[in-house]
Specification:
about 100 residues, three-stranded parallel sheet
Length: about 100
């Protein structure tokens, strides 16, 4: 999705139980300093705590966000490579049961 609005529309259409994982930048609009991706994460995991999320950012202040600081959410600091992202997704999906993700 290209925006929080598009992602939320998709999540509402599909239902969070049909989403295997979400990867979102913390700062979705590079022209603002808003943490709309982080707000998106908080809103959706409040509705579905089992929805796997990976947050990414190149902003060093992202480490100060409560869920990132406490390692409650998977976080990748930019720059990262494809193998790091793949390892994070694999690790996150391995934390749930295989049948749980197969039924999503």
């Amino acid at each position: 999705a290209g925006s929080v609005e598009e992602a939320e529309k998709y999540l509402h259409m599909r239902g969070s139980r049909n989403i295997a994982a979400v990867v979102s930048d913390i700062h979705l609009d590079p022209l603002t300093n808003q943490t709309d991706g982080y707000t998106f994460y908080l809103r959706w995991t409040a509705q579905d705590p089992d929805l796997p999320f990976i947050l990414i950012s190149g902003d060093s202040t992202a480490w100060d966000l409560p869920a990132v600081h406490s390692q409650e959410v998977c976080f990748l600091a930019k720059p990262f490579n494809f193998h790091e992202l793949l390892a994070a997704v694999r690790s996150m999906l391995a934390e749930g049961s295989a049948t749980d993700f197969l039924t999503r």
